[in-house]
Amino acid sequence: MENSNKVFIIAEAGVNHNGSVEIAHKMIDEAKSAGADCIKFQVFNTEALVSRDAPTAQYQKEKTGETEQYSMLKALELKKEEILCLKKHCENIGIEFLATPFDLESVEFLSPLVSRFKIGSGDITNFPLLELVAKKGKPVILSTGMASLGEIEDAFWLLAQHLPLDYITLLHCVSIYPTPPELVNLNVIHTLKTLFKTSIGFSDHSIGINMAIAAVAIGATVIEKHFTLDKKLKGPDHNASVDPVELKMLIKAVKEVEVALGNGLKCISDAEAEIKRVVRRGLYARRDIKAGQTLNAGDIIPLRPEKGIPSRFFNKVLGLKSNTDIKQGTPLEWWMLRPLRS
């Protein structure tokens, strides 16, 4: 991504518009209102995507009642002129338009409309599509659900033949809708970052917002989250999506974590230094000390605030002699002791 210090948040509309361009327009407004950087749709020609008798996945069958992918997807397909209107809407309100192409014709159609491409997990082994996308010379975000490390590596280096490495972002993803927490496996983010030395994000299909927030905390620079206007709508992905209120909560939390991660340098801030002055301890006389007296542990006590000799020098002060009378409660100074210390 262009700025790896900022988390790029994709509000994944996907096909949660249910084939209605009116709903799609409402989703754009909600994504913008929530603070998303980008809203993403899916663009496909059903005939170029599935065979007529391709069965639906079990979760799709349960949520739509459809037994064949063709009829399900055909009802969710947006027309090109509708997509152009969605792109214009995004431009007008200031949110990035993004779409996943599922066939070569859709790649060509989308190329002048998008500043980057997003490729779904199902096409990580679709090398003709990956190669065409890469040849467009734009940044690519690639989801890695259902893929082995070897398949991810093959896809990554195919893209890298045509693109600079910093143009490629990999998204850890588990293609289960919804994904239970025990299968999210967020530590794969570390694995991918170590192996590929590129920007790593998270495409989240879990319920709620916790997994996405945790992903940012361990280094994800892109978050993609399905959202819907209403989880009760009929459709394959509504159940594993967040609603507009949750999307706004997610984005607020991500931005807080983003700031909280800081720069990794351990230093004392000005605000912390003010607290330090009153809670750190210095060495004080526990009781009256006479000139020439050798100090022992019963003569000194670490107290707040830190004045004079810091408490970390407690053991160094033991056995020294006092140069002067010191009253109980007086902060000890090096000049009061013999030999003098700087």
TrEMBL record:
Residue ranges annotated for the AFP-like domain, each copy included: 282-334
Pfam families with a match to the protein in the record: NeuB, SAF
GO biological process: carbohydrate biosynthetic process
Molecular function GO labels: N-acylneuraminate-9-phosphate synthase activity
SUPFAM superfamilies given in the database record: AFP III-like domain, Aldolase
Record-linked Gene3D superfamilies: Aldolase class I, Antifreeze-like/N-acetylneuraminic acid synthase C-terminal domain
Domain of life: Bacteria
InterPro entries with a match to the protein in the record: AFP_Neu5c_C_sf (IPR036732), Aldolase_TIM (IPR013785), NeuB/NeuA (IPR020007), PseI-like (IPR051690), PseI/NeuA/B-like_N (IPR013132), SAF (IPR013974), SAF_AFP_Neu5Ac (IPR006190), SAF_PseI/NeuA/NeuB (IPR057736)
PANTHER family: N-ACETYLNEURAMINATE SYNTHASE, SIALIC ACID SYNTHASE
Protein name: N-acetylneuraminate synthase
